[in-house]
Amino acid sequence: MNFIEDMSQTEDVELFVVGDGFEILESRTVKEIGLVSFEEVVETLDETVIDEIEKKHSEVFETLKKFSRRHRVYYVVGNHDYHILKNKKLQNALKNRFEKFEILPYYYDPHSKLLVLHGNQFDVINRFTVDRKTKKVIPPLGDYIARYMMINFDSQVVNFAPEDVIRDYDNVRPLLDVFHWFDYVTEIYDLSVDLVELWLKSFLSMLKTKEARKWMRNNFPRTHWLSRVFVNRFGGVELGKVLVRSIYTLRKLRRVDYLQRWAISILKGNLRWKEFMTGYPGDLHEVEEVDILVMGHVHHFTYRIVPTTQGKKLYVNCGSWRPVLEKIGLRKKHGFHRKAELPKIIMDFSGKNVEVKASITNVLGKIQGGDS
Asked: Do 339 and 365 meet the contact criterion of CB atoms below 8 Å apart?
């Protein structure tokens, strides 16, 4: 919060939050609403969820309140708080707290050619799509997965494991190492349950639901039948476990920001990216040329100069101020450490050239049974 407080002393400064700042999807309120449709979740939410978040993060709210009295805050929604974009009660709750506060699907400035968006639009699991038959918007499968696992996995683990196990497993990076994390905490706390098997059982049960199957049919019309191999009664569950483990093994290789491919394409002038902005209203016709692209979503800080035929352009990913757990060394026995990367990006458009300053503060913490 020192960063925002320091910036508030500067004249003509604006703050951009590139989505998922309020983490509504993982709130207790959403969990209590249950496995209803995405639309019903959006309609049911009211200002009480903002009250709950503010109680837990009062210092953050107070700092933003002070900042917004003098400076404008642009809040570009992410996939974990998309609800704000569609729910007037949530919008009013935030605007009543922060004076100069704009809620946006994306931000574009035609003068500086700056484009800011969350980035989940280019993640097949976490983007909105259109039903091929009804033409209605289909919510991301990632939203349903998160809610399903909160209710069906988290609620089981809390009966025999400390609460911090629930809190931490969602923060393991890279995602493959979540299996090692489960094995690790099982040994630390001498748990009587195999967390890996429990997680896989919950995940595979999720794939059997009509919501997951509908999403598969619409997004993968030619290959959606493959999902049945996960749940058939002739050994499909065991094969499913192998496939899930294989997918996570492949993802281990993707330690870098996987949004870079789309970022480079956008900066080079490819307009195909607009096809994936379903669910994010706005006049995309005004967005023709992009010189600076800022995204988030992947929790991985990136600063990359991209050469194009129009000259050098910039892609920045804000990463995340959320703590992550990383394995120490290559072996599970070495344990894990908790780390928070705090990237700070300042852009100055006042001169002839754009001045960009980027820095990262790393904060290391300890976890039980591990090293710092």
From this structure: yes
CB 316 within 8 A of CB 358: yes
The SS3 call for residue 303 is strand
Sheet with 324-327, side-by-side order of all strands: 324-327, 336-348, 355-365
Q: DSSP character for 285? A: G
pTM above 0.85, yes or no: yes
Residue 330 identity? L
Which residue is associated with the tokens 């050619």? 113
pLDDT in tens, 190-235: 888 888 888 888 888 888 899 988 888 888 877 655 555 444 444 4
Q: Are 231 and 237 in contact (CB under 8 A)?
A: yes
Judged by DSSP in three states, 265 sits in: helix
Q: What is the pLDDT of residues 88-125, one digit of tens each?
A: 999 999 999 999 999 999 999 999 999 999 999 999 88
Read out DSSP for 275-287? GG-TT--S-GGG-
Angle at 111 between CA 105 and CA 117, to 5 degrees: 20
